[in-house]
Amino acid sequence: MPTIPAATVDAIITDPPYSSGGMMRGDRAQSTTAKYVQSTSHRRGTEFTGDNRDQRAFHLWSTLWISEALRTMRPGGIIGMFTDWRQLPTTTDALQLGGAVWRGIIPWHKPNGRRTQGRPANNCEFFVWGTNGPRELADGETLDGFWQQNAPRDRVHQTQKPVALLEWLTRVCPPGGTILDPFAGSGTTLLAAKNTGRHAIGIELTAHYCQTTVDRLADQPIALDLAGADT
Ligand SMILES: C[S@@+](CC[C@H](N)C(=O)[O-])C[C@H]1O[C@@H](n2cnc3c(N)ncnc32)[C@H](O)[C@@H]1O
Question: Which residue's alpha carbon is at the smallest distance from atom 20 of ligand 1?
């Protein structure tokens, strides 16, 4: 991200590692497979990195990356990130500490999400969003404040988001503008940007998912040289 010139992207849409999956430090330290893949599923997928911070570290780290991401975005642009119910309060705090103006929360309701007998289901994730300072009221189109869709069944990433949800969110970026996703995973935001006529910059630390992103975006196979990659 430090190599991206200041005030050059139009929107930031991302899905950082939540460091969630439980209330205790021991819960969070589990593998991403144990936390995010249902035990009955045969599709385990590849582990991803950066998901084991305790609450204090998650808060400070979120503030740091949000602050650096805002540097890359033009004044008035929209920044938004996914989170779950456990990390929602920390995420809205970090958004503001990182320097954005907090503007709202879009629930993403998954009707077929996991249920527990005798209590309400936690079958929503949340897109927390804000702006890089003031935003002109006429800057862009109106969007509804709610999305309903099941999580994709055939996933290539353990926490993959639906393409249609990301295509809808790209409308916060003007057509032809540039979206930054600093935690690209399998590239769902980048694919949505491509499908809706936006440019996109993706950053991903897990080498396997860099290749997955390229495979999803490419019309023909492109092999990345990831020999020197850390993870
Ligand atoms: C929640 S997943 C994103 C999934 C994505 N929305 C999708 O649909 O495939 C977060 C991703 O961030 C990556 N990651 C973790 N720490 C990172 C860092 N410091 N820089 C870049 N990517 C990182 C992980 O490897 C993981 O793939």
Answer: 205
Confidence (pLDDT) at 21: 73
Strands 101-109 and 124-131: antiparallel
Determine the atom of ligand 1 nearest the C-alpha atom of 185: 27
Residue-range domains of the chain with CATH: 9-217 (3.40.50.150)
Beta bridge partners of 160: none
Render pLDDT for 105-150 as a digit per residue (tens, 0 to 9): 999 999 999 899 999 999 999 999 999 999 988 777 889 999 999 9
Which pLDDT score is estimated for 224? 79
User: Residue 77 has what pLDDT?
Assistant: 97
Residues with CB under 6 A from ligand 1: 15-17, 48-50, 157, 159-161, 182-183, 185-186, 188, 203-206, 209
Question: Quick check: helix, strand or coil at residue 73?
Answer: strand
Q: How far apart are CA 225 and CA 207, in angstroms?
A: 10
For residue 52 the two structure tokens come to 């084991």
